[in-house]
Specification:
By secondary structure, this protein is α/β, with parallel strands linked by helices. It has helices at about 15-25, 40-55, 80-85, 105-115, 130-140, 140-145, 170, 175-180, 190-195, 200-210, 215-235, 245-250, 300-310, and strands at about 5-10, 30-35, 65, 100, 120-125, 150, 185-190, 200, 240, 255-260, 265, 275-280, 290-295. β2 (about 30-35), α2 and β3 (about 65) form a beta-alpha-beta unit. The protein binds alpha-D-ribofuranose (RIB) and calcium ion.
Length: about 300
Amino acid sequence: MPKPILIDTDPGVDDALALILALRSPELSVKAITTVAGNVGVRKCTRNALKILRLMDLPQVPAVAQGASKPLCRRLFTAPEVHGEDGLGGIRWLSPLNRAKVPEHAADVIIRCCRTSAGRLTIVAVGPLTNLALAWKKDPAALRKAGRFITMGGAFRVPGNTGPVAEFNYFVDPEAAHTFLHSGLPITVVPLDVTQQVVLMRKELEYRARRRANLVGKAILDFTRSYMLRHKMTQGFNGGYLHDPLAVAAAIDDSIIETRRTHVDVETTGRFTRGMTVADFRMKARSVDPAVAFKIDRDRFFKLFHERIWL
Ligand code: RIB
Ligand code: CA
């Protein structure tokens, strides 16, 4: 029986790869996709999620619900220099599958899916946690009915990717991240500590995409081009981190990650440390604290990723 999941996302190039991975994994049944402002504005995120659904040409499509257009209490901070002005590497030939969009707000869809999930729903959040925090504040009892939450975010024993100490998702909305990580919900955090261990190199992508020579491969080649060039400019390699696909992979096969229960605070007032995840490893963690992934089985991840993406 496939595991029901909801993906909360700010597509975003690596988000798009995560959506393709989830939609092509028989272990998962994507019940809904909710969008949140992050990499680009939320309307563009929604448009990009709908473009991926058009690309996948599925017999049944999940509902797409648009969410927060800005963080809980800050101005929006975006990353067009990484994901393109449109958020999907400037791909022009993909049009959105507009019929998949529903009028409900993302937070209400999250609440409804949790309430009716009978403890089976996994929510994979791969953008800022604004929608999750809004849903938690609005109806905590509903969210307690979900099975599990996985969030891509944070940086514990590695530098940040947004300023010196913060990871982008938690930098954009640190208040949402702090609130959500202190909810006591069953949360797994997939931080930069492990997502920066999974890099897809351009050469391998080109080899695999050309071997499959289908529309999905062509789209992936197109929408990852500028994302990978950005990494070449800033990180020195022509490739891209698979941050969000790793979070989805953890929903598919939990053995890909090894976690440690950790009390996590998110800095919300620091002048230089906004969004930093602060963990005091001397403290004995409690059962209500999140499980943070500090180790992964890279081979297992890439085997699963490539098996699905190039179907
Ligand atoms: O820090 C990486 C995260 O920020 C990923 O989710 C990426 O899509 C961006 O949203
Ligand atoms: Ca993302």
